[in-house]
Amino acid sequence: MRRISRLTRVAVGVASLALAATACGGTSGESGDDGGDDKGLAIAYDVGGKGDQSFNDAAYAGLERAKKEFGYKTADIEPTDGETDADKEQRLTSLAKQGYNPVIGVGFAYGPAMKAVAAKYPDTTFGIVDSVVEGKNVASLVFAENEASYLAGVVAAKATKSRTVGFVGGVDVPLIHKFQAGYEQGVKDTDPKIKVVSQYLTQTAEEGGFSSPDKGKAAAEGQIEKKADVVYAAAGLSGQGVIEAAAKAKIWAIGVDSDQYEQEALAAYKDSILTSALKDINGAVFALAKSVEDGKPLTGTHTFDLKSDGVGLSDSNPKFAEVPGAKEAVEKAKAGIVDGSIKVATE
Question: Model-level pTM?
Answer without folding.
Answer: 0.86
